[in-house]
Write a structure and sequence with these properties.
mainly alpha; 4-stranded antiparallel sheet; about 5% strand; elongated
């Protein structure tokens, strides 16, 4: 099998982890993953191929198009999850050097999953349903935390009111009434830079393939921008240090010059005084 791409890099081989059974309990493969295995220079180009053959693909079964969760800017794209028949059809239409080998690999992988000989591996990316469920859970937790915080603040306000003290909402969270059973959770520990990077990488790896690549690109751009700001800060501090010294010298010289001019002016007035009286 030709496992090298046009750029000389090894092409990824298909495996059971590429077969997803969470969509309608039917084995499917992501269009971008199929494109990578076929050796597409631009994996997204496979979607143009799918659109051109949409009518034939629909005859092979319903086309599953999903819009991945995208919280950034930009136009959302549709990703296609292809069944066995659809994936084989697109593979034959791709006409790449690896089309025959990938067709055989698809048949073997899909048959292994449907026959039950090998259990289907879970999807390597979070599905839209997973992301929606996570969002709902996060909103529910946020509402519960907000209610607990509100109850605690109301208890503090009423306690101050009973003592005849003024109520300052900005300082209610600073001290809680004694014996209050409703306590806010402590703030999470501050992460180190390495821990923050590891967490960001973990989140990026959980994204769908088309968003994952863009996420890593943005992460590299942010790092380059941060490094540039650090260098700029160091250069600015290096410039400001001699400039501050020069400013101090100029200020002292100006003060000395003002004193000299004042003394000369006073001497000139004193020298001219006798002649004025005569």
């Amino acid at each position: 099998m030709n496992s090298m791409g046009d750029n000389g890099q090894a092409l990824p081989a298909l495996s059971l982890t590429d077969i997803d059974t969470t969509i309608n309990h039917e084995p499917r493969i992501l269009d971008l993953r199929l494109a990578e295995a076929l050796g597409f220079g631009r994996p997204r180009d496979i979607r143009q191929l799918i659109e051109r053959h949409r009518e034939a693909l629909e005859r092979l079964g319903g086309i599953c198009g999903a819009v991945p969760q995208n919280r950034g800017r930009g136009r959302p794209t549709v990703q296609f999850w292809l069944t066995k028949k659809q994936a084989i059809y697109i593979t034959t239409k791709a006409e790449t050097d690896r089309a025959t080998d990938i067709t055989i690999a698809l048949v073997e992988l899909f048959d292994a999953v449907t026959s039950g000989a090998v259990p289907a591996a879970p999807s390597s990316a979070l599905t839209p349903a997973d992301l929606d469920a996570i969002d709902r859970r996060a909103r529910r937790i946020g509402q519960e935390e907000e209610q607990r915080a509100r109850s605690a603040l109301l208890a503090q306000a009423l306690d101050r009111l009973r003592r005849g003290e003024p109520i300052d909402a900005a300082h209610l969270a600073a001290a809680r009434p004694a014996g209050s059973a409703d306590r806010l959770p402590p703030p999470p520990p501050r992460r180190t830079h390495a821990q923050s990077v590891d967490l960001a990488v973990a989140h990026l790896r959980a994204l769908p393939p088309e968003l994952r690549e863009e996420g890593f690109r943005l992460m590299r751009a942010v790092k380059a921008h941060s490094d540039a700001l650090t260098e700029l800060k160091a250069a600015t501090e290096a410039i400001h240090s001699p400039l501050d010294t020069i400013a101090d010298i100029l200020e002292r010289e100006a003060h000395t010059l003002r004193q000299t001019l004042a003394a000369q002016s006073a001497a000139a007035r004193s020298a001219a005084a006798p002649g004025d009286r005569a």
